[in-house]
Automatic annotation (TrEMBL):
The organism of origin for this protein: Halanaerobium congolense
Keywords from the named record: Oxidoreductase
Designated name of the protein: NAD(P)-dependent dehydrogenase (Short-subunit alcohol dehydrogenase family)
Family: Belongs to the short-chain dehydrogenases/reductases (SDR) family.
GO biological processes: bile acid metabolic process
Domain of life: Bacteria
Any one GO molecular-function label of the UniProt entry: oxidoreductase activity, acting on the CH-OH group of donors, NAD or NADP as acceptor
Length: 259
């Protein structure tokens, strides 16, 4: 078992997840990345993390595939011998935005299987390992789970309903696991990003540029992966150990719903 704390981050090959992985590496944690992208396609991003002189494990797998989830966890435990933090970041938007009156079952299943079903059962898997770690008197560990939800957890976007439903589900996953795991001293938290500049939002950049300029957020700028990473870092730091199911909105104040 390594002495460093170990953080699993899903979907960390790029975007928000990559920002989170880099920040946790800066904090001194070993990192294990679970992502569907080929290593060769994201090698430069992974090298950026490795350059911080911390252990980094990259596993290419599908979050919706039980065998891939199990093989990843097996590799993490063989390599590191412990799991301290789980950051559920992996997620997708619909391949094509459609009005909810036209949404297809294929698009619904694609989004929900990754964002919600895969996340739920991966969290279940890791949570049971964390419970076993807490019950093992030879391991001193204070594990935590952080879910990356979205302002879409509560905001209606009829042009991508399946995404909104999946993120609302993530917020309930936070509550459920926070409730269930509290007796073991395992805290569960949630970060709700707002308008964050990534590959996912780049396709609607002009729309959000206009909305930000018009004042949809009190803080008039795009958010960036680094903004989300800072919130995750706070949750993992242990500074909020008397809080669970807590939510940090990283959205430029969008949640104020101002008039």
């Amino acid at each position: 078992m390594i002495e460093k704390k170990v953080a699993i981050v899903t979907g960390a090959a790029r975007g928000i997840g990559h920002g989170i992985a880099k920040k946790l590496a800066d904090d001194g944690y070993a990192v294990a990345i679970f992502d569907i992208l080929k290593f060769s396609d994201v090698k430069e991003n992974i090298v950026q993390i490795k350059e911080k002189n911390i252990p980094v494990l990259y596993f290419q797998g599908d979050l919706t595939n039980k065998e891939d989830r199990n093989n990843f966890v097996k590799e993490v435990l063989e390599e590191y011998g412990r799991i301290d933090f789980l950051v559920n970041n992996a997620g997708v938007a619909p391949k094509v935005r459609k009005d909810i009156l036209e949404t297809t079952e294929e698009s619904y299943d694609f989004v929900m299987d990754i964002n919600l079903k895969g996340t739920f059962f991966f969290t279940q898997k890791i949570a049971n390992i964390m419970v076993a770690e807490k019950e093992d008197n030879e391991i001193e560990i204070e594990p935590k789970i952080v879910n990356i939800a979205s302002s879409s957890s509560y905001t209606s976007s009829p042009g991508r309903g399946e995404y909104c439903i999946s993120k609302a589900g993530i917020s309930m996953i936070t509550k459920l696991f926070a409730d269930r795991l509290a007796e073991y001293g395992i805290n569960v938290y949630e970060v709700r990003p707002g308008i964050i500049y990534t590959d996912m939002t780049n396709v609607v950049k002009d729309k959000y540029d206009r909305l930000i300029d018009e004042g949809i957020t009190p803080i008039k700028r795009w958010g960036y992966p680094e903004d989300i990473a800072k919130a995750v870092s706070v949750f993992c730091s242990g500074m909020l150990d008397f809080s669970t199911a807590e939510v940090i909105n990283v959205d430029g104040g969008f949640h104020l719903r101002r008039l």
